[in-house]
Design the sequence.
């Protein structure tokens, strides 16, 4: 393991497998940091994709977070399929938890297809709380009391950035299933493993031994960051889990976060309520509608980002995960939950 000082009190180490940890160099801070932040790259990505964001997390929350960005799903390995990558992520996260016994909390920050991989992984890592006696169960019926754990840790934030939750086939993207192999078939919802529904459909329920929805519900906050435009890889609708008619107009610019143009807190709605908001359309995609309905059964905080006035707007797909103001906006979510 190679350890070095990045600067500004941030230490970093590269492990034998190529993954990287980032933490505060100050001993007292690193000793008290009990919140594991797992960063997951997107398709054809690498550990370097999260370097800037990881350092910002540690700079701003030095005594709170220990950041790990994953290595087992990089470059061409991202073409192996969401399920295969998800299982690799499970193994990597469990190894980190075993290596750092002081950890108590866990969050995920994932970009693009990495968001789907993270959703798959938490379905495998989820552990329901052991219920007490029936008499004791009536003491408290709050949602928080019913939460399970992720890898034995308290689930805090699930932050996903420009992730195609509805797949890619309805967003006028190039036909990635032809060049992205098994991952592409998952994204275009055309895979049928042993007669099973497409993987993304399975992931809107607890399916077999994968507790996809229970795991998502166990996080205190679920955040979606989406590019309003200029993202030619992941469309606005699929990354924000919205129907076409639900896409809002851009709101006023936030002075603190100039690229954040709209924020919305979407409450959970049941299946019937979600269906009632849809419109009859001969061109609508039934499978995508099922995905929207399934994922809308829990609350989401949605953040729409626009780089329209930036010279780098045509690289919006990549810029969204490294632009300073957007990264700081993400970190502010963690800061709020860290307050006593």
Sequence:
């Amino acid at each position: 393991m190679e350890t070095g000082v990045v600067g500004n009190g941030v230490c970093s180490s590269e492990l034998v497998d190529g993954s990287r940890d980032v933490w505060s160099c100050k001993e007292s801070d690193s000793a008290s940091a009990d919140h594991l932040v797992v960063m997951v790259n997107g398709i054809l990505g690498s550990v370097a994709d999260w370097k800037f964001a990881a350092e910002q997390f540690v700079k701003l929350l030095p005594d709170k977070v220990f950041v790990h960005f994953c290595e087992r799903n990089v470059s061409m390995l991202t073409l192996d399929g969401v399920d295969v990558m998800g299982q690799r992520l499970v193994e990597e996260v469990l190894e980190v938890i075993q290596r750092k016994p002081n950890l108590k909390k866990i969050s995920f920050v994932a970009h693009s297809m990495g968001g789907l991989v993270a959703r798959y992984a938490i379905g495998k890592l989820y552990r329901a709380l052991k219920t007490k006696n029936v008499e004791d169960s009536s003491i408290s019926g709050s949602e928080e009391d019913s939460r399970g754990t992720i890898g034995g840790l308290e689930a805090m934030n699930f932050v996903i950035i420009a992730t195609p939750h509805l797949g890619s086939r309805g967003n006028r993207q190039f036909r990635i299933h032809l060049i992205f192999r098994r991952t592409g078939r998952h994204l275009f919802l055309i895979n049928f493993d042993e007669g099973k529904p497409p993987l993304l459909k399975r992931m809107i329920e607890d399916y077999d031994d994968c507790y996809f929805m229970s795991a998502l519900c166990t996080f205190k906050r679920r955040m979606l960051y989406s590019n309003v435009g200029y993202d030619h890889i992941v469309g606005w609708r699929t990354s924000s889990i919205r129907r076409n008619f639900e896409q809002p107009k851009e709101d006023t610019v936030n002075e603190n976060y100039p690229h954040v143009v709209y924020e919305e807190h979407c409450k959970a709605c049941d299946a019937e309520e979600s269906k009632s908001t849809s419109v009859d359309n001969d061109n609508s995609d039934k499978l995508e509608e099922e995905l929207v309905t399934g994922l809308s059964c829990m609350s989401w905080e949605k953040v729409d980002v626009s780089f329209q006035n930036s010279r780098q707007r045509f690289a919006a797909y990549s810029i969204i995960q490294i632009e300073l103001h957007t990264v700081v906006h993400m970190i502010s979510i963690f800061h709020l939950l860290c307050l006593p």
In short: The chain is about 30% helix and 20% strand. The longest helix spans residues 82-99.
